[in-house]
Amino acid sequence: MLSRSSRFIGSTLASTRLGATRNLALGVRFHENGPAEKVFKYAEGVYGVKPALPAFGGNEGVAEVVAAGANVKGLSKGDWVVPGNAPFGTWRQVATAKAADMIKVPNDIPAAYASSLLINPSTAYRMLRDFKSLKPGDWIIQNGANSMVGMAVIQLAREMGVKTINVIREDRPEVGNTLRLLENLGGDINITDEYLGSAGSLEILKDLPPIGLALNCVGGESGVDLARVLAPKGTLVTYGNMSKKALTVPEDLVTSKQLQLKGFWIAEWIKNNSAEARSAMLNELAGLVREKKLTFFYELHDLDDFDYALSKAQEPFRFRKVVLNLDYPDRMAEHDARPESDYDVFETYTH
After folding, report:
1. The whole model's pTM is what?
2. 167-204-126 Cα angle (round to 5)
3. Lowest-pLDDT choice from 42-46, 136-140, 165-169, 330-334
4. Which of 78, 85, 120, 237 sees the fewest Cβ atoms within 10 Å?
């Protein structure tokens, strides 16, 4: 657990003075950011980039432009933006930033969605488009299907007409409810990791077209199990390692079966692609959110309760993504402003 004395600053006191913006800079005020759990990866030194300490925690978040330099193009006061470079440090209420380092997002979707639009949904979006030319009727397989990326994959694939096999852990609580949720989101075949590779699953796979794409965020044996399902010359894309176990692929899968092993990290895609490409993707994703074709599950905590938010972010088998609310009112002032009658409690007993 990080303490308040951690060199990753995360409290309401950790705010940056806006001051006068330079000609190509923005002053921004953060509304919400997430997830809280990302700060642990930074602190553990296992994230893809390492910030110079002391540093603000957090890299996902949505902010409103409150001031713009005279030479800033394409952004103005009231626009919503997300950081386009890592690590930015979103655990603060206000900041100044180079306009080129921020990416505009639609401001007519819920702030919690906007705060993570560039990370989890975008990861799913890119993996479905950048490794195979998928067409309606094609099948893919993924593990970690109950993760935020996994649920985005199911919904985006559904809109593309692509069929999904979705694998989750057998030992998670309420596994039956989780499988039903994935079905409700549009998952076609939803199974546990223990069932994958069984005689029953092999019978199902025999009746399906060849599977050319597998998405792996678990690693270890789970990733190898996905690789075994792939058709010859299929592609296994790894974008995470929840198990923290090495992905050791048997030699025959990459020689005689000619599988391709690829890695994906959204931060690299952002860095290597144009503002136009990023905007087109974000606008399409926001449109699906608006049309209620892309749904996520969040839990929102005020930043001054970040200790509790971090404890929630560490809980195993979480369903909801932990999001911090940085634009929150003074709860005690709200309480004190209400008349005492609002707090009177009446209990009626019936016999």
Report:
1. 0.85
2. 45
3. 42-46
4. 78
